[in-house]
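Quick log. Single chain, no ligands specified.
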Amino acid sequence: MEITEISKVLSNKTRVAILQWLKEPERNFPPHQDIDHFNDGVCVGYIQDKTGLSQSTVSTFLTSMQNAGLVIPTRHGKWTYYRRDERTIKAYIDALAQKL
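-> predicted structure:
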């Protein structure tokens, strides 16, 4: 886990908002039509709708978040769902507390 890389990802308010929304997906997104739970996360389309940004921008954001270890993707057919990686987020917070 690289503090600098995660901090770069978190320097964008929309990416931070996505992580906040994913913390409580049931509150922040409509129920999924194709699966009846949020265990695997939230469909990219719902995230895109909530941000109001283009699909390519949201995909770029989610890829950078995935590369930093902040989110975990899961495929269901042609759809990708994202959820937070709580272990990485906790490790990041702990590292900040220890090093700063």
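Residues 24 and 33 are 18 Å apart (CA to CA).
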